[in-house]
Design brief:
Layout lengths: L6 E8 L5 H7 L5 H10 L2 E7 L4 E8 L2 H10 L1 H10 L10 H4 L1 E2 L6 H8 L5 H12 L1
Antiparallel strand pairs: 1-3, 1-4, 2-3
């Protein structure tokens, strides 16, 4: 669950298809010092998803994305990581963490349930229904 002030960020990049195996290997695992810098920047619940043909989708939550971006832009560890990662991406100018294409969120279940005043989730309702059937 996100905090009330959390901002969800999703982005897209294109990994060069001939470098997919190496790209995945570089993330298994990521350098411990880079993981620490990501966490220190305020990013959390950070995931990368790899699709067919090298389409990469990233997602994270953060309270202040501008501050997180500034922190990572000033980090020597992040600069070194991003310099090594840059060669994996198609049509990218600059550091991958700063040049990724942001995606616009058009739906979020939690937000819409909260706005509608509905507290029950589908799993809560299915549990209630199975209890009624007993």
């Amino acid at each position: 669950m996100t905090s009330a002030s959390a901002h969800r960020v999703c982005f897209s990049l294109q990994v060069q298809p001939d470098l997919l195996d190496e790209y995945v290997a570089r993330h298994t695992p990521v350098w411990p010092e880079m993981l620490a810098e990501i966490a220190a920047s305020g990013r959390r619940n950070y995931s990368l998803f790899l699709g067919e043909g090298g389409r990469l989708i990233g997602y994270y939550e953060v309270d202040d994305d501008d501050a997180a971006q500034a922190y990572l832009a000033a980090s020597p560890v992040a600069a070194r990581w991003e310099a090594e990662m840059a060669r994996f991406f198609v049509g990218l100018e600059g550091r991958p963490d700063q040049a990724a294409t942001p995606l616009i969120e058009i739906f979020n279940l939690h937000d819409q349930l909260a706005a509608s005043g509905t507290d029950a989730t589908a799993s809560d309702r299915s549990t209630d229904e199975s209890d009624d059937a007993s």
